[in-house]
Amino acid sequence: MTSFDFTKNNTELITHIGTAGGWAKPSTGYTFLSTSKKIPLLISNLKAKGKKQNLKQEKRFWFYDLLFLDVLYRTNQKGHAIFTNLFRNRKPQLIFKFLDEETNLWEDIYYILGCPKWPFIKAFFRRLF
Ligand SMILES: Cc1cc2nc3c(=O)[nH]c(=O)nc-3n(C[C@H](O)[C@H](O)[C@H](O)COP(=O)(O)OP(=O)(O)OC[C@H]3O[C@@H](n4cnc5c(N)ncnc54)[C@H](O)[C@@H]3O)c2cc1C
């Protein structure tokens, strides 16, 4: 579980894919869905441009994952409470849509408000300063 930018390891001639390419979601480790979305893009980009592609996670989802990993790094025991709270406060469809990175900004905000606030606010300010 890491938010490290694996695309840094790509070169002009080598594009890493899968876990090695940073396609695993930092917070969950899930890679299959992300891979199934990125492969067609990679192929069409390769056909069109014929060179390296850095297919990164969308910035805002990367940042949410970063904060979540920060919270778990400092207070790992809160993981259980965070997900229990979420499933109590939000529909599973929304939770999985968010984890699949298919929500829009308003759905993100609604989802985030369903989480315990303090751990994430603290993580946010720690990252900011
Ligand atoms: C228990 C478990 C459950 C999971 N459940 C899910 C899930 O439900 N949904 C989901 O999206 N993801 C899930 N994942 C994560 C997902 O399985 C991996 O992220 C995904 O398999 C990564 O694919 P990959 O091709 O990048 O790497 P890998 O599947 O790890 O493939 C890399 C291959 O390269 C080989 N290799 C490594 N080094 C060398 C070398 N030097 N020379 C030659 N070969 C080498 C390895 O032996 C391996 O066969 C799960 C992972 C685990 C462990």
Q: How would you classify the helix and strand content by structural class?
A: mainly alpha
The backbone outline, from C-alpha atoms, is globular
Ligand species: flavin-adenine dinucleotide
Helix content: 55-70%
Estimated share of beta-strand residues: under 5%
Separation of the first and last Cα atoms: 23 Å
- Count all strands and give the number: 0
Count of domain modules: 2
Detailed description of the structure:
- The protein is an all-alpha fold.
- The chain has two domains: 6-47, no CATH class; 59-128.
- It is 57% helix and 0% strand.
- It has helices at 32-49, 59-74, 78-89, 92-99, 105-112, 117-128.
- Helix 2 packs across helix 6 (117-128).
- The radius of gyration is 16 Å and the shape is globular.
- The two termini are 23 Å apart.
- Flavin-adenine dinucleotide is lined by residues 18-20, 24, 29-33.
Task: Reconstruct the topology from this structure.
Layout: H1 32-49, H2 59-74, H3 78-89, H4 92-99, H5 105-112, H6 117-128
Helix pairs in contact: 2-6
The structure holds flavin-adenine dinucleotide (FAD).
